[in-house]
Specification:
- The chain has 188 residues and is of the alpha+beta class.
- It has a single domain, classed as Peptide deformylase (Peptide Deformylase).
- The chain has 4 helices and 7 strands, in the order αβββββββααα.
- The strands form 2 sheets. Strands 1-2-3-6-7 form a 5-stranded antiparallel beta sheet, sandwiched between helices. Strands 4-5 form a two-stranded antiparallel sheet.
- It is globular, with a radius of gyration of 17 Å.
């Protein structure tokens, strides 16, 4: 089932998500829906808070990205970055901040402890695009958006777009969470 995506300024995107205690049929269904929603929106990563669930769960599939065709889709539950190496600056975008892109510096490689879709504990080394997407999605689990990590001068350049999103002006080809926009009353 395709789920609507929460958009910039939705409160759930600023909450620290709660750890999962296990995987049941409801979580399995959520995982399948998250993959379907992510692919429908032409995304390569999606965190549960983006679809209205404040839990520490993310999915990613970078196989559509050039030079990443060999990468398999991943389910990451309760992630914890154990170590980081190097850093690089790359342009990012986000399904929750549609139409906005900006450069973000992130570690180039990470060692990650997490649980998979079967809730089996794993530790893995990730680099390149996979490391970047994992870090971007973990930020969602911690209530951080990529625009928060942009240089101040670069963020000023996108302020108009962020203001439009915050006021409910959203143009996407995928479903987003509808919200009531309350107009500011003009003085009489």
């Amino acid at each position: 089932m395709i789920l609507p995506i929460n958009i910039y300024s939705d409160d759930i995107l600023r909450l620290k998500a709660k750890p999962l205690k296990g995987v049941d049929s409801a979580i399995e269904e959520l995982i399948a829906s998250m993959f379907e929603s992510m692919r429908n929106a032409s995304g390569i990563g999606l965190a549960a808070p983006q679809v209205g669930r404040s839990i520490r769960l993310l999915v990613l599939d970078v196989s559509c990205v050039s030079k990443c065709e060999h990468e398999k889709p991943m389910v990451v539950i309760n992630p914890h970055i154990l170590s980081v190496r190097g850093h690089n600056d790359m342009e990012e975008g986000c399904l929750s901040v549609p139409g906005v892109q900006g450069y973000v510096v992130r570690p180039a490689a990470i060692t990650l402890k997490y649980r998979d879709e079967h809730f089996a504990e794993r530790t893995g080394e990730f680099s390149g695009m996979v490391a970047r997407v994992i870090q971007h999605e973990i930020d969602h689990l911690d209530g951080t958006l990529f625009v928060d990590r942009m240089e101040k001068r670069d963020r000023k350049k996108i302020q108009k777009e962020l203001t439009a999103l915050a006021s409910g002006i959203v143009d996407t080809e995928y479903p987003v969470v509808e919200r009531e926009v309350v107009p500011i009353a003009k003085p009489t």
